[in-house]
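Course assignment 3, question 2. Fill in each field.
Student: A.L.
Task: Predict the tertiary structure for the chain below.
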Amino acid sequence: MTAQLDSFQSVTASQVYKSTFLSPASPLSSIQVQYPIEVSFCDQEQAQLAYLLRLLKQASAQNRWIMFIGHDALLDRNLLKSASVDLNKVILLNKKDGQQTQALMAKALQMGNCSAVIACGDVRDYCNRTIHEAAIHGNAMAFVIRRSTHNPLLH
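Answer field:
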């Protein structure tokens, strides 16, 4: 069973966004994507953030929610607005003490009311059968954001 769980890997937001151009006639929700989608960025390198915003813009065109789990995952309102993400479709789920973010993400994905569910953390914590199958069942995208501090002087 461990071998099966190890086969679940993340992809990046840029890979998913670029795959939308392979089949322009297909809506975003019909594209087969490996979940979860990793979004790693810092102040100096924001390419993955830009791809995430483009995907969220497409997701907000659906008649479903874009859910951020916890304040640490929430992106700046002005940033979302400048990317043409419909702010009326953005919701924030506040975690209560003891609640596992992975379980909340799986439930939100499974229900099918969200076009995208975004959490913050290490993507490896979300690379499992539950998240993958919930995203497919709910026809939703699962994003895991990791903001990093990048100091060019250290490299």
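Instructor remarks: The two ends are 39 Å apart (CA to CA). Strands lie at 11-12, 37-41, 65-69, 90-93, 114-120, 141-147.
Grade: pending
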